[in-house]
């Protein structure tokens, strides 16, 4: 069947086949984003001893209802806004969040682009995501939006450094920038995964990931009690929804990266169970639960405390641990760090 | 033409357009964003040359860090466009000869035989298992160790100098020292005063009332 279509389409086939593969990643991702919003409302609801959404299809159709509502709403463009950039902002926010998925391996062979410098590519894509926030904040021509954009940009740039250093430790241990090889380097069960030898880096990475995605307790970029909603205060309807989708897609992405780099990806934690993509999804879901748990539990950080934590605590911690890993690799205990 | 050629010409056209718009757009923020586009397409062209490590590093460093700070500064400055354009044409007598001279120099350099296409060998396609990243790493840390280390020292000096030049602690800022905050004990802030819960009201004496 596929062979017949292939001969029919000829030279166009590789492009179409790639598009099909992209859709096979993006469609489940969008569904996951939609149901993550529902999960967030349910989990936080239960943590606050209420029920959460339970009306539209017993709660299960709530994301669909939200989507339809936002699609129907008018997109208001402020008269003093920079029109072109105002509309470009949401696009630039969501595009890198999806583009990064190109190199994420779901299984030994299940990966869209198995490139050599995959880790570097992911770092580059996540660092481009800040443009959506900056452009949205500036083009809105509103002081709250601008303040939110500045806060967010400073925060993302600061935490990217700690995140990058945390990943340096991983690539030192795995001896590769390819995400698939990094996962395979952790084979051998729960105690062989990198969370153990690189524990400080794992903690720094995960907390930085929360800060990178502007999630509570680091959500000063939105800070609804201070600057009403930060960079997307002027957006309405679907334009706002795109920012919302980008935030949740980024959450899933950073959780996925943490799983691939520190928690053994699709590898099974125990030897008597087979490796499978189900392990990967289970681990990602567990980390995402932490994101929701944090939001329900912690009060918002003060802005100067966020900066201090990023620059004066996390960056020195990661630097020291990189040095330590490098030194240990020259000793007889090097096998612990490989 | 093969597929790569089409990709190259598309990227080159975008790159030239973006470069042109960097110097012609009136709004500095637009100019900075076109520069971002130029970096991005340049990275695409490098990818075509199979230099994937450098291409991704270009995006990571220039787009992800340098241009973000650029935009940050440009957005903070409230640039008055009319003031900028004032007296723009007065610079023409100087700018025109300089521009023409630069254009002539570039034409001379690029049309010389050292830059002609037959002087530069076409890149040899690498085998499938070839790791560009590992190759750059081993080159940097063996053959080019000294220049690499020198460059990093120069960068380090620049970082320290930039901080040393701009770091001024304001006397009136309400600076918080977290170490001091952590060390605070209850006794430093709270004084327990022991006093009876009830107290007799002392009647106001006559002479004092009269004073009012």
From TrEMBL, chain A:
Entry EC no(s): 7.1.1.-
Transmembrane segments: 15-38, 84-106, 118-140, 152-173, 193-211, 240-264, 276-294, 314-335
Keywords, comma-separated and alphabetical: Cell membrane, Membrane, NAD, Quinone, Translocase, Transmembrane, Transmembrane helix, Ubiquinone
Membrane topology field: Multi-pass membrane protein
One GO biological process term: aerobic respiration
Predominant place of localization: membrane
NAD is among the record's keywords: yes
Single annotated GO MF: NADH dehydrogenase activity
Enzyme's top EC category: translocase
Localization annotation: Cell membrane; Membrane
Domain of life: Bacteria
GO cellular-component term (any): plasma membrane
Known catalytic reactions: a quinone + NADH + 5 H(+)(in) = a quinol + NAD(+) + 4 H(+)(out)
HAMAP family associated with the record: NDH1_NuoH
Known partners and oligomeric status: NDH-1 is composed of 14 different subunits. Subunits NuoA, H, J, K, L, M, N constitute the membrane sector of the complex.
Family: Belongs to the complex I subunit 1 family.
Physiological role: NDH-1 shuttles electrons from NADH, via FMN and iron-sulfur (Fe-S) centers, to quinones in the respiratory chain. The immediate electron acceptor for the enzyme in this species is believed to be ubiquinone. Couples the redox reaction to proton translocation (for every two electrons transferred, four hydrogen ions are translocated across the cytoplasmic membrane), and thus conserves the redox energy in a proton gradient. This subunit may bind ubiquinone.
Protein name as catalogued: NADH-quinone oxidoreductase subunit H
Species of origin: Methylobacillus rhizosphaerae
UniProtKB/TrEMBL annotation, chain B:
Record key words, sorted: Cell membrane, Membrane, NAD, Quinone, Transmembrane, Transmembrane helix
Membrane topology note: Multi-pass membrane protein
Domain of life per record: Bacteria
UniProt key word Translocase: no
Transmembrane segments: 6-24, 31-49, 55-77, 89-110, 144-167
Keyword flag Transmembrane: yes
Gene Ontology, cellular component aspect: plasma membrane
InterPro entries hit by this protein: NADH_UbQ/plastoQ_OxRdtase_su6, Nuo/plastoQ_OxRdtase_6_NuoJ
Name of the featured protein: NADH-quinone oxidoreductase subunit J
Origin species: Methylobacillus rhizosphaerae
Pfam families linked: Oxidored_q3
Major subcellular location class: membrane
Reactions catalysed according to its record: a quinone + NADH + 5 H(+)(in) = a quinol + NAD(+) + 4 H(+)(out)
Physiological role: NDH-1 shuttles electrons from NADH, via FMN and iron-sulfur (Fe-S) centers, to quinones in the respiratory chain. Couples the redox reaction to proton translocation (for every two electrons transferred, four hydrogen ions are translocated across the cytoplasmic membrane), and thus conserves the redox energy in a proton gradient.
Family assignment from sequence similarity: Belongs to the complex I subunit 6 family.
The enzyme's E.C. designation: 7.1.1.-
Listed GO MF terms: NADH dehydrogenase (ubiquinone) activity; quinone binding
Locations listed in the record: Cell membrane
């Amino acid at each position: 069947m596929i062979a017949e279509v292939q001969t029919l389409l000829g030279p166009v086939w590789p492009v179409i086949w790639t598009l099909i593969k992209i859709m096979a990643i993006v469609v489940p991702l969008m569904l996951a984003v939609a149901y993550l919003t529902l999960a967030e409302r349910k989990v936080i609801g239960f943590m606050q001893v209420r029920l959460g959404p339970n009306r539209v299809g017993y709660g299960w159709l709530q994301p669909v209802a939200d989507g339809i509502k936002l699609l129907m709403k008018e997109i208001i463009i402020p008269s003093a806004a920079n029109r072109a950039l105002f509309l470009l902002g949401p696009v630039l926010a969501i595009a890198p969040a999806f583009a990064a998925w190109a190199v994420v391996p779901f299984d030994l062979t299940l990966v869209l682009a198995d490139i050599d410098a995959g880790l570097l590519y992911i770092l580059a894509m996540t660092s481009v995501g800040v443009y959506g926030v900056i452009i949205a904040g500036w083009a809105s021509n509103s002081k709250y939006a601008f303040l939110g954009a500045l806060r967010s940009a400073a925060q993302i740039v600061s935490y990217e450094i700690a995140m990058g250093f945390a990943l340096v430790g991983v690539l030192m241990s795995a001896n590769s920038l390819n995400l698939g090889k990094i996962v395979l380097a952790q084979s051998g069960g729960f105690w062989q995964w990198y969370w153990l030898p690189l524990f400080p880096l794992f903690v720094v990475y995960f907390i930085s990931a929360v800060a990178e995605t502007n999630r509570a307790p680091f959500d000063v970029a939105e800070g609804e009690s201070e600057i009403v909603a930060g960079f997307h205060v002027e957006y309405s309807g679907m334009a706002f929804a795109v920012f919302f989708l980008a935030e949740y897609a980024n959450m899933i992405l950073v959780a996925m990266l943490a799983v691939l780099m520190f928690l053994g990806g699709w590898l099974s934690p125990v030897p008597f169970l087979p490796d499978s993509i189900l392990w990967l999804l289970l681990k990602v879901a567990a980390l995402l639960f932490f994101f929701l748990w944090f939001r329900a539990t912690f009060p918002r950080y003060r802005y100067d405390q966020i900066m201090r934590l990023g620059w004066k605590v996390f960056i020195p911690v990661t630097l020291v641990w990189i040095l330590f890993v490098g030194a240990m690799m020259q000793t007889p205990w090097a096998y612990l760090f490989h | 033409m093969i597929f790569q050629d089409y990709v190259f010409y598309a990227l080159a056209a975008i790159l030239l357009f973006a470069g042109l718009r960097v110097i012609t757009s009136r709004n500095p923020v637009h100019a900075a964003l076109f520069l971002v586009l130029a970096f991005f397409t340049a990275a695409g062209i490098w990818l075509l040359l199979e230099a994937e490590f450098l291409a991704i590093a270009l995006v990571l460093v220039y787009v992800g860090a340098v241009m973000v700070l650029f935009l940050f500064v440009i957005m903070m400055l409230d640039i008055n466009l009319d003031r900028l354009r004032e007296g723009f044409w007065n610079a023409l007598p100087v700018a025109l000869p300089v521009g023409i001279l630069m254009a002539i120099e570039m034409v001379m350099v690029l049309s010389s035989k050292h830059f002609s296409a037959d002087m530069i060998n076409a890149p040899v396609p690498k085998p499938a298992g070839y790791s560009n990243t590992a190759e750059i790493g081993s080159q940097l840390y063996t053959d080019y160790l000294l220049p690499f280390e020198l460059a990093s020292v120069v960068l380090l000096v620049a970082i320290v100098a930039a901080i040393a030049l701009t770091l001024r602690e304001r006397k009136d800022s309400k600076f918080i020292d977290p170490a001091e905050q952590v060390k605070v004990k209850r006794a430093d802030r709270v004084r327990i005063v022991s006093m009876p819960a009830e107290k007799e009201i002392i009647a106001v004496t006559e002479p004092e009332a009269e004073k009012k």
